[in-house]
Amino acid sequence: MISYQDQKGVGLSSLALLLILPALLIVASGLKIAEMGSETNAIQILADKVSYTGKDIFNSIKLMEKNRFPIDNTILQTLAEKYRSATGLLVEISLNQVHPLWIHVQNTGADHYAGSKYCDVEKISDTKWGYSFEDFDESAGDAVDFDYGEPNLLLEKTNEKIKIAVLSYDSSYFSDVYYSKILLWSGVGGIGKTHVGETVEIEENLFGFFSVVSIKVQDLGGIARYSENILLK
């Protein structure tokens, strides 16, 4: 039989446990929050490191271009290796050539070139490329979504000719589409999807290519990434 004193002790022990449990939960929650805060800070530091490295590479290449320093893939590979050794990040820098397609956005006056961040280039096959432009522009105050659908162009090499087609235009803006100095279409897009579905044909060797430096930086885990294209003039 449990005496009154024993019952009282059990009661006090139960009460003490009820008082201690919330404290334990608070301590555990605090430790979890501190752990999450530490992880968040670590990710932010890593993202800052990747972004700083990417921007530093960008500025270095722009300075090389300004001072007419020779830029080729051998030099860029050496530069990438130095940044990899100094930062421990994955760094890729390469020189590429793209067709001289560009758009002039009538609504804002912005010019967006293939090879810049306002154009996504996809090699579909040895004879076909997709060029998807973004017509919104940060400097014009647009809220740029970078969905790259204004316009979508398909470029195809056939014999000595290049065929360029407007596949779609997903914006209310209007853009003029150029191949180097040649105006292919004026006022593409808008609500009425003007010129969508049309195709033009030009001489393949009429003009050269755009030279573009592609910069890609990321950490070993792929958490933070930086990507930028520089159109060499």
Please give a structural write-up:
With 233 residues, the chain is of the alpha+beta class. The chain has a domain of 109 residues. The protein contains two helices and twelve strands. The strands form three sheets. A five-stranded antiparallel sheet has the order 4-5-6-7-10, with no helix packed on it. It starts with a helix and ends with a strand. About 4% of the residues have low confidence.
Summarize the topology.
Elements: H1 4-66, H2 73-87, E1 90-98, E2 101-105, E3 111-113, E4 119-123, E5 128-133, E6 152-158, E7 161-168, E8 174-179, E9 182-189, E10 199-203, E11 210-218, E12 225-232
Antiparallel strand pairs: 1-11, 2-3, 2-8, 4-5, 5-6, 6-7, 7-10, 8-9, 11-12
- Poorly predicted runs: 4-12
Give the percentage of residues in beta strands.
Answer: 25-35%
End-to-end Cα distance = 96 Å
- Secondary-structure element order, N to C: HHEEEEEEEEEEEE
Helix content: 25-40%
Helix- and strand-based class? alpha+beta
Write out the strand line-up for the largest beta sheet, numbering strands in chain order: 4-5-6-7-10
Give the helix tally.
2
Global mean pLDDT? 83
User: Which term fits the overall shape?
Assistant: globular
Total beta strand runs: 12
Q: Profile the largest sheet.
A: 5 strands, antiparallel
Output the radius of gyration.
29 Å
